[in-house]
Write the C-alpha cells for this entry.
Amino acid sequence: MSGTGDLLWDSGHLRLEREEARRLMEAGGAPSPEPAAEPLISLRDLDLSFGDHVVLDGISLDVWPGETVCVLGGSGAGKSTILRLILGLIKPNGGQILVRGQDVAAASREELLELRKDMGMVFQEAALFDSLTVYDNVAFYLHEHENLPEDEVARRVDEALRMVDLDPDQVEALLPAELSGGMKKRVGIARALIHQPSILLYDEPTSGLDPITTRTIDDLVLKLQRELGVTSVVVTHDIRSAFRIGNRVALLFGGEIVFQGTPEEMMESGDGYVREFLH
Amino acid sequence: MIVRKAALTPVRYAGSSLRELAWHTQRYFTLLWRSIHGSFTRPFYGKDLAVQLDSIGVGSIGIVILTGLFTGMVLALQSAVEMRQFGATIYIGRLVGASTVRELGPVLTALMVTGRAGSGIAAELGAMRVTEQIDALNTMGVDPVRKLVVPRFVACLIALPLLTIVTDLVAIFGGLLIAIVKLDLTFDLYMRSVYSTLAQNGFLLRYIPIDFVSGLSKPLFFGAIIAITSCYYGLSTRGGTEGVGRAATGAVVTSSIFILATDYFLTQLIIGLFIE
C-alpha cells in the first residue's frame, strides 16, 4: 500500500472514530460534577512492583466528588491494580493513596475496614458468594454491619435490585450459578450500592457482555451517577463504554499514565500511543 | 508492564527460597494467632460455626466410624497371630486399647479429617480467592479471617476430640468383635483387659486416665493444624482452577506431615510430664 493510501485510510478511520466517539459522548452524557475544593481520591506518585515486574511507575491521578473517571489500558497494564490499591487490598512500594484525605497505604486494618464502608466495588466476574442467594448476597453488608429489622433489610434489597432494573420477586431466591452474566453484574452493582457508598469502583463492568447488555450496564453507571451522585472509578479496556460514561479518562501504558483528560481531549490528542489505542 | 530481569545464581536461589520459607512461616503463625484472638473477641459468627461443625464434625462421623472399626479389627487380628503362640490372647484388649487411645485413634482421625474436610476447606477458600469473593469480603469491611477462618478453626478444635472419642470407642468395639467371634474371648475379659491398660499409666485428678488425657489433648493440636494449614493454603491460592487443585493437595500433604511430626513431639512431652 502506498503512503497516500495509508494516509487516506488512516484519515477515514479517524474521522469515523471521531464521529462515533461524539455520538457515544452525546448518547451517554455523563453529567458534570459540582466543583469541589479537594479530590475525593488522590493517587500521588504511586510505585508498585511485584518482584522484578514494575506495574506502576510514579502515577498520579485525582478523582473529584461526583465524577466518573475511566481508567483505560491494555490487558495487564495494571488497571485493576489501581482499584486494589484504592481499596487497600495491596500496598504500594511508594507514593500516597488519599481517600477523603486519609492515606490508605498507612491505615491500620481497622481504619481500612472503616474506610471501605464508604466504598462499593463491582468485580469483573461479579464475585457473588456462591453459597448465598441473590437476596443474601445483596443484603450481606446490612446483615454484617447494620442491626436492622429484617423487613427493613428486605425493603432496601428490593430498592437496590429495582435500581439495577431487576425484579426482586424473580431473582431474590436464585443462586449466582442460575444467573446470566449481565444479571450477575447487576446483582454485583446492587450489592455494592446497598449501603449507599459515596465511591463506587468498577472493575471491567462490561467485559464478556454482548453489546446490548454492555449498553444496559453503561446506562446503569450513568443512572447511579445522576441519581445518587456517586463518585466512580471505572477500569475498562472498552473505549466505547469509557466515552459514554466517563467525565474524564486516564490511559495507562508501561506503568505510567500517558494521558488524562476528557474524552474530547483524548480524541484531539496527538500522543502516538493514545492514537494507537483509539484505533 | 515493565520487566526487570536479574540473573538467578544458585546462591541467590537458595537465599530467595529461605526468604520465602520465612515469609510463609511468619504468615502461617500470624494466621494462627489471629484465629486464636478471633475466637475470643467480637464479632462472633455463630451461624457459620454451626455450619462448619456440621460439615467438619457431623460430616466426618461416617468416615471415622469405618476407620475405627476396621483399625480395631485389624489390630485384634494381627496381635492374635503373635499372641496365640504364647497363649496370651486374653491380652488382646490391652493391645487394642493402648494403641488406639494413645496413638491410632487421634492420628488416624486427624488424617481422615484432613483428607475429607481439610481438602474441602482449602478448595472452598481457594475457589473464593480466585473468584475474588475474598476481596469482596474485604471491600465490604468484613475480615475474612474472622468470617471464614475462625469458624473453621473453632469447629476443628471442637470436632476433632469428639471424633477421636468416636474412633476410640468404635476401634475398641471392632477389637471386641474379633475377640468374641474369632478368639472365643468373653465381653467381660476383653473389657477388663482394655481397662487395665488405660489404668496402667495412672490417673490425673484421681479419676481421669493419663492415656485418656494424652489421647484427647492431641486432637486439639491436630484440629488447629488442619484448620490453619487448610485455610492458609486456601487463602494463598493463585492461578485459577489449577491453583485450587494445588491448594487442596498441598493442604492435605502439609497437614498430614505436621500431624505426624507434632504427634511425635507431643508424645515425648506427655511421657516426660506424666509417665516418666
Observations:
- Residues 182 and 212 of chain A are 10 Å apart (CA to CA).
